[in-house]
Write a structure and sequence with these properties.
five-stranded antiparallel beta sheet; about 10% helix
């Protein structure tokens, strides 16, 4: 059985979500509402993410790591 988003991403996890604009947006998991998660993006908006293909762990570019 596939893991639910609530099992994959703990509250406080840095993630990126796909908004369909050919860009991943950085955010943080702020709450669970089974079987999905609430993510707050860096611009302060909240998104209810239900699809595993639209969320991933935050990725950093080599230049951003310092």
């Amino acid at each position: 059985m596939a893991e639910r988003l609530t099992e994959l991403y703990a509250v406080g996890t840095a993630v990126q979500i796909w908004l369909g604009e050919q860009v991943w947006v950085d955010g943080t998991v702020v709450a669970h509402q089974s079987p999905a998660v609430w993510v707050r993006t860096v611009d302060g908006r909240s998104w209810f993410v239900t699809n595993r293909r639209r969320i991933r762990l935050e990725e950093w570019d080599a230049d951003e790591r310092g």
